[in-house]
C-alpha cells in the first residue's frame, strides 16, 4: 500500500457523552480539489450510510444541473467507508452525490462488521425517495438516470451481486474482480447481469485482484469494458493519498465521460492518453 498522507479533517459533532459521539458531518482534505467543497454527512433517515456531497448543494445543482450519483461498497464488505473517504469526498467535490455503506466515523478504529450487497439497492431506493420528497435537501436535485455502482475489493463483488438492478448505468470495480471466485453473493455468472459500461481500476501485479480483473475483462463481451491498471498501485491503490490520488482522478475521468457526457474525458480510455497517469496501462473493448 502506498505511504499515507495525513488528511486534514474538520468535524462538526453533537456529543452525547464523552465516550459516545454522534457525528453529523465531516470535511475531508478541506473539502476536496473540485469546484464544490464536499462534506461527508450522516443523514437521520439513512444512519447506516455516509453521504458524500457538495456542501452547497443547490449551488452545485444550479451550475451542473441534476447531479449524477454513485452508490459504493467497501473493501472487506465492511460497514465503514472511512478507508475510502478521500476518493469519495474528492468525487463529490466535482459535482456528484456518493452514498457509501457504513455509518460516519471519526477515525478508523478497525472495528467493523460485514455487510450485505442489498444495502446498495437500499441506497438507491433512498436516493429515489429523497429526490421526490419536498422536505428533503435533495429534492429535485438528483439525476436518477445517471447512477454508478462502485466497490473496492469485496465491495466490488457486492456490486456484481446487484448488477441486475436496472438503475445502474455504469459499474466501477476498484481492486476487484470475480475471476472464478464466489463472493458476497456474486460469481463469474454475475458478469452477464451487467447492462452498462464497466471499468476495472486495479493496482498492478502486487494487487491480489488484478488477475481476477483480467479474467473478467476477457469474459465481458456484451457491454463496453475498460481495464485501467496502475502498475505500482498495490491492493490499496491511492485511497490513502490526498484528494484520493490517481485512483480518484481516473474515477473522475470515467464518471465525467460516462455520466456527464464529457467526451473529451474518453481520451484517457480510448486513445489512450495516459500523459496524466504515468506508470498506468489501459485496455478497452466493445466501445
UniProtKB/TrEMBL annotation:
SUPFAM superfamilies: alpha/beta-Hydrolases (SSF53474). Keywords: Hydrolase. GO terms for molecular function: hydrolase activity. Pfam families: Chlorophyllase. This is Alpha/beta hydrolase. It comes from Aestuariibaculum sediminum.
Amino acid at each position: 500500500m502506498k505511504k499515507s498522507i495525513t488528511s486534514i479533517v474538520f468535524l462538526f459533532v453533537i456529543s452525547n457523552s464523552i465516550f459516545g459521539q454522534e457525528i453529523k458531518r465531516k470535511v475531508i482534505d478541506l473539502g476536496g480539489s473540485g469546484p464544490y467543497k464536499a462534506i461527508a454527512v450522516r443523514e437521520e433517515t439513512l444512519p447506516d450510510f455516509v453521504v458524500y456531497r457538495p456542501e452547497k448543494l443547490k449551488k452545485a445543482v444550479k451550475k451542473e444541473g441534476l447531479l449524477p450519483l454513485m452508490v459504493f461498497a467497501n473493501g472487506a464488505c465492511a460497514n465503514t467507508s472511512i478507508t475510502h473517504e478521500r476518493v469519495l469526498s474528492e468525487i463529490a467535490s466535482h459535482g456528484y452525490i456518493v452514498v457509501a455503506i457504513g455509518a460516519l466515523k471519526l477515525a478508523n478504529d478497525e472495528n467493523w462488521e460485514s455487510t450485505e450487497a442489498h444495502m446498495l439497492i437500499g441506497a438507491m431506493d433512498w436516493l429515489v425517495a429523497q429526490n421526490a420528497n419536498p422536505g428533503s435537501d435533495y429534492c429535485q436535485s438528483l439525476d436518477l438516470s445517471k447512477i454508478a455502482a462502485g466497490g473496492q475489493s469485496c465491495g466490488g463483488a457486492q456490486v456484481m451481486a446487484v448488477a441486475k438492478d436496472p438503475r445502474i448505468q455504469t459499474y466501477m470495480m476498484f481492486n476487484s474482480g470475480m475471476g472464478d471466485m464466489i463472493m458476497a453473493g456474486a460469481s463469474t455468472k454475475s458478469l452477464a447481469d451487467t447492462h452498462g459500461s464497466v471499468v476495472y481500476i486495479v493496482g498492478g501485479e502486487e494487487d491480489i485482484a488484478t488477475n481476477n480483473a483480467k479474467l473478467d475483462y476477457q469474459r465481458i463481451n456484451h457491454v463496453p469494458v475498460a481495464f485501467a491498471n496502475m502498475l505500482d498501485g498495490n491492493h490499496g491503490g491511492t485511497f490513502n493519498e490526498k484528494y484520493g490520488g490517481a485512483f480518484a482522478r481516473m474515477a473522475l475521468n470515467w464518471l465525467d465521460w460516462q455520466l456527464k457526457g464529457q467526451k473529451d474525458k474518453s481520451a484517457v480510455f480510448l486513445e489512450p492518453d495516459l500523459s496524466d497517469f504515468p506508470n498506468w496501462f489501459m485496455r478497452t473493448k466493445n466501445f
